[in-house]
Amino acid sequence: MSIIVFGSINIDLVATAPRLPLPGETLRGRDFFKAPGGKGANQAVALAKLGVTTHIVGRVGSHGFGAELLHHLQTVGVETKNIFIDETVSSGVAIITVDDGGENEIIVIPGANGNVSQADVDRMSDLLPEATALLLQLEIPISAVLAAAKVATEAGVTVILDPAPVESNLPDELYPLVDIITPNEVEAGQLVGFPVNDVDSAIKAAQILQKRGVKTAIVKLGSQGVVCATNHETFFTPAFPVVAIDTVAAGDAFNGALATALSEGKTLQQAVIWGAAAGALTATKSGAQPSLPDRFTLNEFLMLHGQ
What we know:
alpha/beta, UDP-N-acetylmuramoyl-L-alanine:D-glutamate ligase, 9-stranded mixed sheet, 9 helices, 34% helix, globular
C-alpha cells in the first residue's frame, strides 16, 4: 500500500534575520540558503523519510530548478514518475524570511504548480487502487484540488487536506470530500471568520468545520498543542516542548506523520501525537525538507517523551 501526495513542488530561497522586516523596511540579514520545498513535496518527503511508499503527483518547470527538485525527491525515496515536466513555465519558488524566534514570512511564486490541472488528476487516479490516503494542500489551483478530492473519495481513499495557503472562500463542495482537515490557528481563523488563539476557540472552529462536512477537524495551535474534533470525540494534545529554530515545514511534518500513523493502524489520538512530535522535531532545524525527521529520529523522540 502507498500514500499519494497531490500538490506543489518548489525551490525555497531562505533568508534569516534577527526579526521580520516591517513594511517598506530594508533589514540586514544573517544568512541565505537554498533548499527544496513546496508543501506537496515537503509532505511527500516527510512520508518517505518515515518509511512510507510515497507517490507525488505535480509539476516542475523544464528549466531553472526542475531537475534539481526531481533529483532530491528521488534521493529520499519518493516515486516521481507522475511529475509532469512543464515546458511553458519555471518551477515554483518560495521566498522565505525566518527570524531568530523561528517565525517566518513566505511569498510563493506558483510557476509550474499553477498549471496543475485535470490531466494531473487523471494521472493520479491510476494510483488510487493501491493507496490508503491522499494528501492535498492549496498551492495548486483549487479546481485541481477539488477534482482530486472527488476521485479519491469515490475510490474510498482517505483525503487529508492541509488548507494552506489558506483561502477563506473554499468551495462548499470541498468540505464533505475531506476526511481530515489540518489548519493551524491562523488558517483556522481565516476559514471560520474569528480569531483562533486558544483551546476553546480552536474547538469552536473545529466544530464549525465539521458542520461544513469535514469528518475530522484538527487545529494546530503551535506551542500550545493540537485540538482534534470528530463526530465521536474532541480531545486536546499538548505540544512537545522544544526550542524552535525554524517553523517552516512543521505543518508538513505533522501531516506526514499523521498519515503514516493512520496507515499503520494507529488510533487517531496516537496519530495526532505522532504529528505533534514530527512537527516539533522539524521546528528545531532550519530549512524545509532537510529538517524533516526520519523514522529512527521520530521513534527516539516519542520514546524519550513516554509515547
